[in-house]
Design a protein that fits this description.
Chain A contains two helices and 15 strands. Chain A is of the alpha+beta class and 311 residues long. Chain A folds into two domains: 241 residues, no CATH class; 57 residues, no CATH class. Chain A is elongated. Chain B has one domain. Classes of the chains: A alpha+beta (311), B alpha+beta (223). Chains A and B meet through helix 2, strand 2, strand 4 and strand 5 of A and helix 1 and helix 2 of B.
Chain lengths: 311, 223
């Protein structure tokens, strides 16, 4: 059973990476059709939701042995649940030369309204670029459609851990660098350290752990995402399951870079994730394998599950 | 005793999970900004558009060669279909176009008249519902109170009423006022005097609107 799970995991990882790369390629094909102002609005739920995903499901218990090895390998699945308003966006640029958007209107000052589905909006309906002068619409151009019509920002990541010496445990999220055709290299590396305090504070009624995690994901030349988390976790063991909760201070940042196809201009921008802390509640079922389910809530709410093989 | 403690933990956990699942929604992280409100000058510009529409469409009531019940207008500046119901008086009997004393000009819902209002390609769609009293020799239409319509340009809609507007076959309305209520800007009223320059009043500001070019300039008021 456990060997089969490991085999499935190892076979699935390249598939997941390629699938993720394909989605990113679709994203780039859309983004190259629009400028930076549009792209920042269009990608906003992805930029913020992805960071929240990265910092999710970093632990499933506060228990770490002080004198006994522990080891695990598995996969984590996260989904940040977007606010319903995040499937569309509207961004206004005031008092600009409309010639920047329609050469026929060079020298005319007006307002530009960029609107439509975000990356997680309707994949059939294009957005719009509208220009207004004196209350009248003078530009109306179709833009790009959404990519995935969903309110969940998804992420799947493999995870490994080893520890059990003096209450320490190292956690790694990693997959090997992969070449995705013309698209470029994709790589992912995250690492963290956790320490259980019960070896020192032996009278505590619950397990207590502190830890940090830092990670970086690169997808071709299109995006680079970093995240970090510092967390305090408590857990309580029950027969067959463990309940846990944690509080984390966290940050994330994503860089987007692409070349706009009409102008040949290189577009590059950085967005800091909106989430800076979260409260997490979860349970871990320990039946043959460890299945944990948790919800993390800060400015964004992230649901996640993990399936780990180990001891 | 241990069972009691465990139950307490489980109850606490269930309570916390229930509270979070039911009450934890994400903040919005996507810009959803309002369309810029129309400025006073913008309202004056809207007035230009509505004035142009009335100037373009109104004369169809008077022209006996054009004044049939369904008029499809296809030109450089105006496109669409309007209907004109000619009567011998207000709510009177149907009458021939050339001798009617009253007319009701309107557009079908969802089939607006589209007017080019700016030389750089601005367009507005008009839904019209206008009644006019017609006098003869010279042929003149006085647009009656209660007439009006709505203008949509992009995501903006402006309603307007027309009161006492006189169309006499000249290039511009001879007299009267159009009152304009944008959905997100200041109201404006535009007064016509038969020339190509109409006077728009928006709050305390006054503008001259050129009905030929669509230009809006600060009004020059003699001291």
């Amino acid at each position: 059973m456990r060997l089969r799970f490991l085999s499935v995991l190892l076979v699935s990882l390249p598939v997941l990476v390629v699938a993720g790369g394909a989605v990113a390629q679709d994203l780039e094909e859309l983004l190259v059709q629009v400028g930076e102002e549009y792209a920042t609005g269009y990608t906003a739920p992805f930029l913020h939701g992805f960071g929240a995903n990265q910092n999710a499901n970093l632990y499933s218990t506060a228990h770490i042995p002080w004198n006994g090895l522990t080891f695990g390998v598995g996969v984590k699945v996260m989904g940040t649940h977007l606010n319903e308003d995040d499937q569309t966006f509207r961004k206004v640029i005031r008092n600009v030369d409309l010639g920047d958007f329609d050469p026929a209107l060079a020298g005319i000052t007006g307002d530009v309204v960029l609107s439509g589905p975000t990356i997680f909006g309707n994949a059939d309906t294009p957005g719009r670029l509208q220009g207004y002068v004196g209350g009248m619409e003078v530009i109306n151009q179709p833009t790009i459609t959404g990519l995935l019509d969903t309110r969940f920002v998804p992420l799947v990541t493999p995870e490994f851990y080893a520890g059990g010496i003096a209450g320490f445990k190292a956690v790694v999220r990693w997959f090997p660098e992969m070449e995705l055709g013309d698209y470029g290299k994709t790589s992912y590396m995250g690492y963290g350290l956790q320490w259980n305090a019960n070896g020192v504070l032996q009278t505590l009624p619950v397990n207590v752990m502190v830890g940090f995690f830092s990670q970086k994901l690169e997808v071709g030349t299109l995006l680079e995402s970093t995240g970090s988390s510092y967390h305090l976790v408590v857990s309580k063991d029950f027969p067959a399951f463990t309940a846990y909760g944690g509080y984390a201070l966290e940050s994330s940042e994503m860089d987007i870079s692409y070349t706009e196809e009409t102008s040949g201009t290189t577009i590059a921008f950085t967005t800091e994730g909106v989430q800076d802390n979260r409260l997490t509640l979860g349970v871990t079922l320990d039946i043959l394998m460890k299945l944990n389910l948790e919800m993390g809530h800060g400015k964004l709410t992230t649901y996640s599950a993990g399936l780990m093989f180990g001891f | 005793m241990k069972t009691l403690k465990n139950n307490a933990w489980l109850g606490l956990l269930a309570l916390a999970l229930a509270a979070c699942v039911t009450g934890c929604s994400s903040d919005s992280v996507t810009p959803n900004e309002d369309i810029p409100a129309v400025t006073a000058e913008g309202s004056a510009g809207t007035a230009v558009a509505i004035s142009l529409a009335m100037t373009q469409v109104g004369p169809y009531i008077l022209d006996p060669f054009k004044a049939v019940e369904d008029i499809t207008i296809s030109g450089d500046d105006v496109n669409g279909t309007v209907h004109i119901d000619f009567r011998d008086g207000p709510d009177g009997n149907p009458a021939e176009a050339g001798v009617a004393a009253w007319a009701h000009l309107y557009t079908d819902a969802g089939s607006p008249v589209v007017v080019n209002v700016l030389e750089y390609g601005g367009q507005a769609a008009f839904d019209l519902d206008v009644t006019g009293s017609i006098t003869r020799t010279p042929d003149t239409v006085t647009i009656l109170a209660g007439s009006g319509g709505s203008m949509t340009s992009g995501d903006r809609t402006t309603t307007f009423t027309v009161d006492g507007l006189i169309i006499d076959g000249g290039s511009y309305p001879a007299a009267g006022t159009v009152n304009i209520v944008p959905d997100d800007g200041p109201t404006a009223s535009v007064t016509f005097d038969g020339s190509n320059i109409a006077r728009a009043v928006v709050g305390m500001a006054m503008y001259d609107v050129n009905l030929d070019t669509g230009a809006v300039t600060d009004a020059v008021v003699p001291i």
